[in-house]
Design goal:
This protein has 165 residues and is mainly β. Among the domains are: 33 residues, no CATH class; 80 residues, Immunoglobulin-like (Sandwich). Helix content is 11%, strand content 41%. The strands form four sheets. It has a five-stranded mixed β-sheet, with no helix packed on it. The longest helix has 18 residues. It starts with 8 loop residues before the first helix and ends with a strand.
Length: 165
Amino acid sequence: MLYLPLQNNNMKKLLLLFCVLVVSSYATAQTLSPEVISTSGTSMSNGSTTLDWTLGEPATATLDNPQNAITQGFHQPTIIVTAIADAATLNNVKVFPNPTIEVVQIQFTANQKNTLVELYSVDGKLLEKHLVNSQALEMNMSTYPAGTYLLKINKSETHKLVKSH
């Protein structure tokens, strides 16, 4: 190893500055950006609106109104997750028996005014829609095949409902 003694303070300062520059160039923090690796997809924009989609990703939530429906996936910057209740009671609503064979009872702790109750298949197809103005609703499930269904109450609360044979 070659050793060269530093003769003056200017040389020491120059070497120190060089070391600081080299170290600082390697000490930059990493940045994260949302990215997706998928088999297919694209991003489209027309000024004020951007649409990103990928094939085969799980959906996390669906936002809809009478004219439009938007399903969000994991690559969106803001994720809204809809929780599905497994418990028989949530937010003053009882759904029983679950699993059921024929009839499902939906009971509220108080009389309802214009409470929307919707039954969906797991693929998102609306099967039944009821406007409840009482304390209870009875739904006949006998015409539906065995499987899992989603019961939405006022588009804000979702219950998993199982129909057995």
